[in-house]
Design brief:
The protein is an alpha+beta fold. It has 3 helices and 3 strands; from the N terminus they run E-H-H-E-E-H. It has one domain. The radius of gyration is 15 Å and the shape is globular.
Length: 74
């Protein structure tokens, strides 16, 4: 199976964030982001290599994780 730009013209790739972008964009502590990724509570994709990881988090996964952090009236 190959991917083609014309295969699904209606679909758009999910927005992906680097952990540092999540920290800056959403004012979240850096340590919390990496801790949650390491623990598997915040899903991520490693687009790097065995020697140097390059983590990305989809906006959809981030929003789902964010809901788990909600306090007060749910």
């Amino acid at each position: 199976m190959t991917l083609s730009a014309t295969a699904q013209p209606d679909s758009t790739p999910p927005k992906m964030y680097k952990p540092a972008e999540l920290v800056k964009t959403f004012s979240i502590p850096r340590d919390l982001v990496y801790e949650e990724i390491k623990a598997g509570r915040l899903p991520s994709y490693n687009m790097g290599s065995a020697k140097r990881s390059r983590l990305l988090v989809s906006l959809e996964d981030f929003r789902a994780w964010l809901e788990t952090r909600r306090t007060g009236n749910k």
